[in-house]
């Protein structure tokens, strides 16, 4: 048996020391001394959150034991003021194929043609800005579960009034402590992010609903059938469900566009979501997908802009706007993406139901995948 050379020993010692330092850094970033309610002047960096996610994968379960129904009260406040970076906004508009920011009209009754008005922010833009707050709460040391495997199942955006790129904001993100049961029997939890103007007026609210694995198993966990991708890393690719999720029948086609394999990386650069299933076809295959997946909120942002264009030709968009999204299945790229009004669902002008305008729309791969 040969004796290791002095250089070899030095390399081994340096490698061991590096590993010990890296583990100490991760452990420090994951210390439970992080307050349950954090207050800062700026949005948190994503790097420490991803280190905590990796640590949680090694130290936390993926499901709550027994019949536990509650999560800890966690909150992250960003007092700001946070201003909109115009170069970031322009990249978002380009990536999401948004027409927001083009000249539009304001009508005498106070309504606007949403998405076509001057420097108006796209309704889903602040979701990309504040994703890191959601990540911060799900990787908090007091969050009892590993967030890896949680699936983004639904999202609701409520915009109280038009938001301008020249405004400054503060944010409050809250993990709602109550777990709810979905129709499929999975546990779901909500993270609420609210944006406030410089006058402390709430102007925008986002509710992201995440689904957790239903039961703990010694085998690899299965992704939740019928969900479209995840903002948090999955541990296994999708398997064909026994019964395909019900997808509404398409009606009028509003628009089509091509989403390529580089689009998710571009969107990740905007919101900080470096999930491997979005980064490259090769990394996506490691998790069982045949290619890279589209971000659910990327497709939702593009669809919202198409809906607003539909409003521009048929009716007037009220200032108060709510966008509700359900993610039904993964969208594998590259693909030709289509936005359709649901069959049999016609545009209902303001006042038709509860004083609000509404219509149903769907985004899907042209091939039906």
Write the layout of secondary structure elements.
Elements: H1 6-29, E1 37-40, H2 47-59, E2 74-83, H3 86-95, H4 125-138, E3 151-159, E4 168-175, E5 180-181, E6 187-196, E7 202-211, E8 250-259, H5 263-271, H6 276-279, H7 281-285, H8 296-314, E9 321-326, E10 335-342, E11 348-353, E12 356-358, E13 361-365
Helix pairs in contact: 3-5
Estimated structural class: alpha+beta
**DSSP strand count:** 13
Multimerization state: single chain
What proportion of the residues is helical, as a percent range?
A: 25-40%
Strand residue percentage? 15-25%
| Beginning-to-end CA distance, first to last residue | 58 Å
Compute the number of helices: 8
Q: Shape, please?
A: globular
Q: State the low-pLDDT regions, or none.
A: 101-117, 216-238, 240-248, 313-318, 347-355
Radius of gyration: 22 Å
The helix/strand order is HEHEHHEEEEEEHHHHEEEEE
Q: Report the average pLDDT across residues.
A: 74
Tell me the major beta sheet: 8 strands, mixed
Word description of this protein:
Helices cover 27% and strands 25% of the residues. It contains eight helices and 13 strands. The protein has helices at 6-29, 47-59, 86-95, 125-138, 263-271, 276-279, 281-285, 296-314; strands at residues 37-40, 74-83, 151-159, 168-175, 180-181, 187-196, 202-211, 250-259, 321-326, 335-342, 348-353, 356-358, 361-365. The strands form three sheets. Strands 1, 2, 3, 4, 5, 6, 7 and 9 form an eight-stranded mixed beta sheet that branches. The protein has a three-stranded antiparallel beta sheet with strand order 8-10-13, covered by helices on one side. Strands 11-12 form a two-stranded antiparallel sheet. A hairpin with a 5-residue loop joins strand 5 and strand 6 (187-196). The chain starts with 5 loop residues before the first helix and ends with a strand. 36% of the residues are buried. Residues 101-117, 216-238, 240-248, 313-318 and 347-355 have low confidence and may be disordered.
């Amino acid at each position: 048996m040969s004796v290791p050379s002095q250089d070899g020993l030095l390399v081994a010692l340096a490698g061991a020391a590096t590993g010990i330092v890296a583990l100490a850094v991760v452990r420090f970033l994951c210390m439970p001394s992080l307050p349950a309610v954090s207050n800062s002047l700026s949005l948190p960096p994503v790097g420490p959150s991803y280190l905590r996610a990796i640590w949680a994968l090694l130290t936390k379960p993926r499901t709550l034991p027994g019949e536990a129904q509650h999560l800890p009260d966690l909150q992250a406040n960003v007092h700001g003021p946070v201003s909109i970076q115009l170069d970031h906004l322009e990249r978002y508009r380009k990536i999401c194929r948004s027409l927001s920011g083009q000249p539009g009209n304001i009508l005498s009754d106070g309504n606007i043609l949403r998405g076509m008005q001057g420097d108006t922010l796209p309704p889903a833009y602040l979701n990309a800005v504040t994703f890191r707050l959601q990540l911060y709460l799900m990787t908090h040391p007091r969050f009892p579960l590993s967030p890896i495997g949680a699936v983004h199942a639904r999202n609701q955006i409520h915009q109280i009034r038009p938001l301008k790129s020249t405004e400054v904001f503060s944010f409050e993100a809250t993990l709602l402590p109550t777990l709810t049961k979905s129709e499929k029997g999975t546990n779901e939890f909500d993270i609420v992010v609210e944006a406030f103007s410089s006058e402390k007026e709430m102007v925008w609210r986002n509710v992201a609903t995440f689904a957790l694995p239903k039961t703990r198993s010694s085998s690899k966990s299965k992704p939740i059938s019928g969900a479209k991708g995840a903002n948090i890393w999955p541990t296994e690719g999708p398997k064909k469900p026994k019964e395909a999720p019900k997808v509404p029948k398409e009606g009028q086609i509003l628009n089509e566009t091509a989403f390529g394999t580089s689009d998710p990386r571009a969107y990740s650069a905007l919101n900080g979501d470096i999930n491997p299933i979005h980064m490259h076809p090769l990394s996506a295959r490691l998790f069982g997908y045949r290619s890279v997946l589209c971000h659910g909120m990327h497709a939702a942002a593009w669809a919202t802009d198409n809906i607003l264009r539909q409003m521009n030709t048929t009716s007037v968009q009220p200032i108060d706007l709510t966008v509700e999204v359900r993610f039904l299945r993964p969208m594998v790229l590259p693909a030709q993406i289509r936005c359709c009004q649901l069959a049999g669902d016609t545009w209902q002008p303001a006042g038709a139901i509860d004083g609000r305008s509404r219509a149903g729309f769907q985004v899907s791969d042209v091939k039906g995948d």
